[in-house]
Design goal:
Number of helices: 37
Strand content: under 5%
Helix content: over 70%
Radius of gyration: 35 Å
Largest sheet: none
Number of strands: 0
Shape: flat
Structural class: mainly alpha
Length: 590
């Protein structure tokens, strides 16, 4: 008997510990206990988890939001711990309670877990357990439960009987017309998702009227979510119904008084274009897009500008060039000089993609001047976006035309009096090197890259050394030995000690990418001779450079060539030179 009692006590121990920890005043301890729920459930077994643990959790849902959030997440993974899909309905009660709490993130996580649990229900179990839960939430007194219900219709609709489907559609219609804006917002957000699983005839009879109703809501937060659903709804309808059922709403929302709604239309425009098909895109959407590109709000213009390339690419080929040249291009010309830098940047990221669409002649005549304007823009992000996409223009007009048109502007910027402008061009140079190819780069830009090494601003000289490293990574060590290293070595003989130091900085980065042979054979001898430099700053940088070069040198030269020079610097009269020489000796020895 005593042994039996002992066994019972032992089996109760996990849940007793959980109860104690969940009643503890320390929030972190309660949170940790919730995160260990799966371990406790394993210890209890599936039957006791269903009969004891789940009811206990259901009765004790009152806590800090972070504890409830962890509980909602855990329960979504509990299917196997309660005995599999056959018993999935056991998890509905605690999740239903969590779906009604005030904190949005907890409700959202509970809804996500409910959706996961619904997938394990049989059609009979859905009708017996899950659908009644959805109906209770949809008819709840508090807006929190009604808002949560909106996310559950789509996961159960397809697997229930026709009468139950009709009830679900009725409940969803009620939520779309709810008195509380937060519920209508949740319904608008899930409208497209629900429409995808509803039969087409009921989409037209039940959901389209709700879509139109929500799109005219007094709250712009509801209207913008209805605008987001436009593409999803349109994709479900046959072409003959779109003009009558969807396009009036699209036109109205594109001219909405709230810029947020217009922004959403612009943001979803390409998806909408693909949904309605080429005919409506040409006749209806092109004028709407034209209007969005000249919207009074910069955020809307930026969203529309970012869609220019994709919109133009998806146009009907028979009318594509005409629409671009007559409706889109005039607006692009204005946007290139837009007062808002985000608009110009969004346009710059896609404008080059128009070249393959409009062809060589139109690119040279109409687009190149716009590229040139943006290449000279004061905003570095605009310039970067243009330089980043030169390749697609190169493919259309050829490298000669590209160099003739845009390279003078790049060179002009590279010699700008403002050092930050020069810095921006240096940072783009490796990208440009990849776009132009080695032959053109050698002919036009290698000299420019070398000139930055003797710039009077340190930040430019530093960026120029890093630029050399990236160029060598792109073009290879042999290119460096032929085209770069001879010009860099000339700096070691300059009168200006800052230029001699720049030489050492270049060696620091070039030794990493040139390989042991070139580093040992070409770079090392000049560094060793500079140990006798008359300027102490140069001498201690020789010590630092030798330490950085050591891993990239042939080991055979360390003892006979490098160490004697460092030992000589280690007895230098200048204290800084001695310090860095000793550091280098220790570093190489280590």
């Amino acid at each position: 008997m005593a042994a039996s009692d002992s066994g019972t006590d032992e089996s109760l121990y996990p849940i007793a510990v959980l109860i104690d920890e969940l009643k503890n005043e320390d929030v972190q301890l309660r949170l940790n206990s919730i995160k260990k729920l799966s371990t406790i459930a394993l210890a209890l077994g599936v039957e006791r988890t269903r009969s004891e643990l789940i009811p206990f959790l259901t009765d004790t849902i009152y806590d800090e939001d972070e504890v409830l959030l962890a509980l909602a997440e855990q329960l979504g993974n509990f299917i196997n711990l309660v005995g599999g899909g056959e018993y999935a309905h056991c998890l509905l009660a605690p999740l239903e309670s969590l779906a009604t709490v005030e904190e949005t993130v907890v409700r959202d996580k509970a809804v996500a877990s409910l959706r996961a649990v619904a997938a394990h229900h049989t059609p009979q179990a859905l009708e017996q357990h899950f659908v009644p839960l959805v109906q209770r939430l949809a008819g709840g007194d508090w807006f929190t439960s009604r808002a949560s219900a909106c996310g559950l219709f789509s996961v159960c609709y397809t697997r229930v009987s026709a009468p139950v489907k009709a009830e679900l559609r009725q409940h969803f219609r009620s939520l779309c017309q709810d008195d509380t804006p937060m519920v209508r917002r949740a319904a608008a957000y899930k409208l497209g998702e629900f429409a995808r699983v509803v039969e087409v005839e009921y989409v037209k009879s039940d959901l389209i009227p709700m879509f139109v109703y929500l799109a005219q809501d007094e709250q712009d937060s509801v209207r913008l979510l209805a605008a987001e659903a436009c593409a999803a709804v349109a994709a479900l309808l046959p072409p003959e119904d779109m003009e009558q059922l969807v396009m009036p709403t699209v036109r109205a929302r594109a001219g909405d008084t709230s810029w947020r709604v217009r922004y959403m239309v612009a943001d979803k425009f390409v998806e909408l274009q693909q949904a309605v098909g080429p005919e409506l895109a040409r006749s209806d959407l092109a004028p709407i897009f034209h209007g969005l590109l000249k919207d009074t709000e910069a955020e809307v213009r930026a969203a529309a500008a970012g869609k220019v390339k994709d919109f133009c690419m998806n146009l009907d080929k028979a009318h594509q060039e005409h629409i671009i040249m007559t409706m889109i291009l005039p607006q692009i010309k204005d946007l290139v000089c837009d007062p808002n830098q985000h608009v110009k940047s969004a346009l710059a990221s896609v404008i080059m993609g128009l070249s393959p669409i409009v062809g060589r002649h139109n690119t040279i005549e109409y687009l190149l001047p716009l590229f040139l304007t943006q290449l000279k823009d004061e905003c570095p992000e605009v310039r970067l976006n243009i330089i980043s996409n030169l390749e697609c223009v190169n493919e259309v007009i050829g490298i000669q035309q590209l160099v003739q048109s845009l390279l003078p502007a790049i060179v002009e910027l590279a010699e700008d009096t403002k050092w930050r402008v020069r810095l921006a061009i240096i940072e783009h140079m490796p990208l440009l090197a990849g776009q132009l190819g080695q032959e053109f780069f050698d002919e036009k830009l290698t000299g420019l890259c070398m000139s930055w090494l003797v710039d009077h601003v340190y930040a430019i000289r530093e960026a120029a050394t890093l630029n050399l490293k990236k160029l060598v990574e792109q073009y290879g060590a042999q290119w460096a030995e032929t085209n770069v290293i001879p010009k860099v070595m000339a700096l070691s003989r300059e009168q200006n000690y800052l230029h001699r130091m720049t030489y050492l900085f270049c060696i620091n980065v070039l030794s990493e990418v040139c390989g042991k042979d070139i580093t040992t054979r070409v770079l090392l001898p000049t560094v060793l001779t500079m140990a006798d430099d008359e300027v102490a700053n140069v001498r201690f940088n020789v010590a630092k450079t030798l330490q950085k070069m050591a891993p990239f040198l042939d080991p055979a030269v360390i003892q006979p060539q490098v160490k004697p020079v460092l030992e000589k610097l280690n007895v230098d009269p200048d204290v800084d030179v001695k310090y860095f020489a000793s550091e280098a000796i220790a570093g190489i020895a280590g």
